[in-house]
Amino acid sequence: MPVHEPVFSLKNTHFRFPDDQENILKDLTFDIFPGERAVISGPSGCGKSTLLYLLNRLYPLNCDGILSGSIRLFGKRAEDYAPGEINHRVATVFQDPDSQFCMPTVEAELAFTLENLHVPFKEMESRITDVLSLTGLTPLRHAVIQSLSGGMKQRVATACALIMKPEVLLLDEPISHLDPLTAKQFIAWLDGLQKQFGLTIVAVEHRLDLWESFFGRDIQLDADGHILADQRFAPRASVKFPKRKTALQTDRSLQVSGLCTSVNGKSLLHPLSFSLQRGEVTVVAGPNGSGKSTLLKTLCGIYKSSGGTVESDGIGYVPQSPEYLFLTQRIKDEIAYSGSSSPKEIQDLMERLRLTDIQNAHPFAVSHGQKRRVAIAAMLADKRQVLLMDEPTSGQDAAALQALAQLIAERANEGISFLIVTHDMEFAAAVADFVLLIKDGSLTGKFVCEELWANEELLASHHLLAPKGVKLRAESFA
Amino acid sequence: MRNLLHDMNPSVKFIAVALSMMTIAFFFNPWTPLIFWMGVLLFQVFLSRLNWKVWALFMLPFTIGAFGYLWTTLLFGTETGGQIIWSFAGLDITAEQLETALSLSFRVLAFSTLSLMFAFTTDPVKFIMSLMQQLKLSPKLAYGIMVGYQFLPVMKDEFTQIQQAQRLRGAVEEKNALKRLLDMRRVLIPMLAGAVRKAERSAFAMEARGFTGEARTDYYQPIRIGRIDFWMSALFVLLLAASCLGGIWLS
Amino acid sequence: MLKSWKLKEVVLMSLFAIVFGIVYLLFVHLSNIWAGIIGPIAYEWLFGIWFIVSIICMNIIRKPGAAVLSESMAAAIEVLLGNAVGPRLLLSGIVQGLGAEAAFAVTGYKHFNLAVFMLAGAGSAVFSFVYGYFISGYAALDPSFVALMFTLRVLSGMIIAGIGGKYISDGLLATGSLRGYAIARAEKGDAGA
Ligand SMILES: Nc1ncnc2c1ncn2[C@@H]1O[C@H](COP(=O)(O)OP(=O)(O)OP(=O)(O)O)[C@@H](O)[C@H]1O
Ligand SMILES: Nc1ncnc2c1ncn2[C@@H]1O[C@H](COP(=O)(O)OP(=O)(O)OP(=O)(O)O)[C@@H](O)[C@H]1O
Ligand SMILES: [Mg+2]
Ligand SMILES: [Mg+2]
Q1: Domain co-membership, B187 together with B234
Q2: Residues B16 and B77 reside in one and the same domain
Q3: R_g (Cα) of chain B, nearest Å
Q4: Count of CA atoms in the C-beta half-sphere (13 A) of A435
Q5: E-only strand ranges, chain B
């Protein structure tokens, strides 16, 4: 094999879904060579995930999509591979943590992967042990995957990709569900791995600031699905948010006392109490698996509480996996479902969250980031007094984050209270009045933002990093 | 001793159970199924660890069902003529009728006990894996079932989550019991739609893990056939022979 | 046979088998109790429930084998649930599935309309009745009673499985989640023609 044969080679590739008139991806031409670290970026919904699916050959076969132009994988035409064959050399970590497992436990999932690769029995045990210790997942070896938190699932998915000892690693927003410290470790660790094995890495990512100078090449798509730029990677600054004025009112809208939860006899949430005032925006933060999603689910009644009380003026909820909410066949109907907003308000919401173009699409058949925005829009249109949001920021591009921050600010001014789970501390710093810290299922406390950013120890013990904006300001004072 | 049934190879056990049922179905005397039933009960007492409370709970509906067989067979059994042993409300019951009625009811009991024995002593995952490893079930099917099985607890949660989420969105719940039953459609369809999506993603995940559907060369947890299986099969054959011969001899 | 199947179709069958495996099991227990009161005839008019998954899956996937495989899988899932009637069900599942499959095979896997679904329901009913005749010893019952059971079962297969199966798969098609499966492609083809 000549040394410089490209791993992936696309030439004038167009792709569209069978129901669409227009191509999603247009005229893509690029080569990716062994050992490259490329990042694909572009606005949410432009076709990044779709492109990865073409590279690992899941599409077009599995969606009856229509492809023109050529895609060569390791020098061979993509259509000449059998399903699953190319995946012995190309490993993928998908975007949605809920959707990438097929076996009950972590160990079984890893073993399944090895069996697929025809790894001899003698080697299996050591490879499993190795990859678990490499990814710090040894304690979870026998854990049931479905009972893990979103972030932990993402880590398991990475372990499954690595155990294959692939030549190429495709990553679809791999850190979007990881807590900040773990995300940082993940990047460092990926860096080491790449150097050690000479992997080719192709990642899709919105939040490029966190990766610092990890990548070598930068492929940008525009909203239409053309290549906008294909260049050397230059580190990015983080997203800027205008600082919000607090809109705290005096009366309470949510009062939680002694709330606790256990699922199947396992205590997930120890008794905790707090309250929200009208117009308050509070961020919930903590390590992966600490119980943030559990708290939100208990507050809105999806998990039964095993004690304590919740008093509120009406709660709305955006889940970490937004699909649960969807009841109708069209995005437009989904957002208008509750009937609490006027057509004009709905129009406005859709425009600001960039949903107008896809308003007639089925809520399940849009991109990950779009689904999340649909859920957010539907809940905002519902106009509940208290709104719980589970990771509304993950998988969103800069424009969507800014629009979201803006929307939250406006609604808070109208007296609506927000409880937002997020791993994005820049976003938290911009919107939050307070931060609730959670660890191992217990509430550490409720902190004023500025105090928290100054308290390194507290941050570190909750796997958090102070936002860069705040850090820069602090450094300029010193 | 008490682990023998649990340790048996699931495929071998399955074949033993299926063959026994096929054989017993040829006998219409009451003794064969009765002896067989007793034998299976003894197996269960001595060769397995069992929670009898749970067992009784599952056995109850079958027992009721067996009773139903008893009296319908008495009432609707084929006319046989012969000695009338019991007359009631203008209905004559012959000895032969009683025999077939008892035979069918014992059959229900024997088959249910046998099936429960299999269900309670077999690890579902091992069963599927064994079907693939010993009986050459296609890996595509075997892992397809495994994925489904993995979603079993999730489906239960999903059911409540969909209901909760719909309530959260302001979908009203019907008060009327009948309307609520028809309303099940509103949960069943999203459940199935969810199943379609889960299927797609799991299939993607499997493919992304390099699953091509071809047979594997090595298993992480191979399931073997051992000496236990030989002896246990012999035991089943013995019981089968005893009940068949015993039945013929006694009637 | 499975070569031409996409993995996602196999997994779809399995997940449907789960949903209906649970439904089936509910009805097994329900009708067992009824059977105690009104005898084995209690099963008959409900029997169509147990055939429904094969018709729905065949309608969605439209490949030879979809009926028999899905019905067997649903039975396997019932066994896996750990508390079902066990191996006996696996056999009857296969037999029932073969019945529906036969109906689709007779029509050459070309027509998927209500009439064919009702035929498939009837097919399952006939096959499962023959099997039941042997395994449960219906031979010992009065022929006219057996005939009544048979009629009820066939009607139930045609109505509950045939019509019910169509109703459910239509409802599902309307949710738009079936794009990428044969049923959605056929729908589009019809619209285009
Ligand atoms: N199965 C599908 N059928 C039809 N259209 C689809 C399907 N999946 C995605 N789309 C559409 O294709 C476009 C690209 O989707 P894709 O998931 O690739 O976006 P993305 O760039 O990864 O976005 P995000 O950053 O939000 O994840 C979107 O406009 C979406 O609406
Ligand atoms: N259904 C369940 N059964 C058993 N354990 C569960 C269940 N759901 C959650 N857990 C456990 O509860 C803990 C908290 O989970 P949760 O999803 O609330 O975490 P999280 O804080 O939202 O994490 P992340 O940031 O990764 O989303 C985890 O250890 C998880 O394994
Ligand atoms: Mg994406
Ligand atoms: Mg979470």
Answers
A1: no
A2: yes
A3: 24
A4: 28
A5: 84-88, 91-94
Asked if C85 and C77 touch (Cβ cutoff 8 Å), the reply is no
For residue A104, pLDDT beyond 70: yes
What is the reported pLDDT for C189?
A: 64
Residue B22: list chain C partners with CB under 8 A.
135
pLDDT of A478 reads 47
- Name which of B64, B141, B143, B182 to mutate to probe chain C: the one with the most chain C Cβ atoms within 10 A of its Cβ: B141
Domain that holds residue B233: 4-123+225-250
A475 band by pLDDT with thresholds 50, 70 and 90: low
- Position C191 scores a pLDDT of 45
- Indicate whether B128 belongs to any domain: no
Does residue B108 sit in the same domain as residue B172? no
Tell me, what's the pLDDT at A388? 94
Residue B65 maps to a domain: yes
Respond yes or no on whether the N-terminal peptide bond of residue A60 is cis (omega within 30° of 0). Answer: yes
CA distance C157 to B150: 30
Q: Is A469 in the pocket of ligand 2 (CB under 6 A)?
A: no
Residue A78 half-sphere exposure, CB side, CA atoms within 13 Å? Answer: 23
* B242 inside domain: yes
Average pLDDT over residues B209-233: 90
Domains in chain B, number? 2
Q: What is the pLDDT of residues A390-434, one digit of tens each?
A: 999 988 999 999 999 999 999 999 999 999 999 999 999 999 999
Q: What element of type H or E holds A356?
A: none
The answer to whether the beta carbons of residues A329 and C175 sit under 8 Å apart is yes
Whether B56 and B114 share a structural domain: yes
CA atoms within a 13 Å half-sphere pointing along the CA-CB vector of A354: 20
Pocket perturbation via mutation, ligand 1, pick of A13, A15, A24 by most ligand atoms within 8 A of CB: A24
More confident residue, A333 or A469: A333
C57-112 pLDDT, tens digit each: 999 999 999 999 999 888 877 776 655 555 677 888 899 999 999 999 999 999 89
Same domain, B118 and B150: no
Contact between A325 and B165 under an 8 Å Cβ cutoff? The reply is: yes
Which one of A120, A316, A319 has the shortest CB-CB distance to B218?
Answer: A120
One domain, residues B114 and B13: yes
Distance A293 CA to ligand 4 centre (A): 4
Residue A312 CA to ligand 4 center (angstroms) comes to 22
Distance from the Cα of C175 to chain A's closest Cα (Å) equals: 6
The answer to whether the CB of A361 is under 6 A from ligand 1 is yes
Window from A190-194, B48-52, B58-62 with minimum mean pLDDT = B58-62
| Greater model confidence, A190 or A474 | A190
Q: Are residues B112 and B143 in the same domain?
A: no
Residue B105 in any domain: the answer is yes
* Residues 6 or more apart whose Cβ sits within 8 Å of residue A292: A284, A285, A286, A390, A421, A438
pTM above 0.90, yes or no: no
Q: How far is the CA of C64 from the centre of ligand 1 (A)?
A: 32
Q: Does the CB atom of residue A143 touch ligand 2 within 6 A?
A: no
- Scan residues 29-68 of B and list those with Cβ closer than 8 Å to C: 58, 61-62, 64-65, 67-68
Return the residue whose CA atom lies nearest to atom 2 of ligand 1. A365
Closest CA to A270 of A306, A217, A323: A306
Top-level CATH class of C8-188?
mainly alpha
State the complex-level ipTM: 0.85
The token pair that represents A348 in the structure block? 């406005």
What tens digit of pLDDT does each residue of B159-191 get? 777 777 777 666 666 666 556 556 666 677 878
Per-residue pLDDT at B125 exceeds 50: yes
Token readout for A59 is 């599409």
B102 and B51 fall within a common domain: yes
> Does the CB of B127 have a partner CB in chain C at under 8 Å?
yes
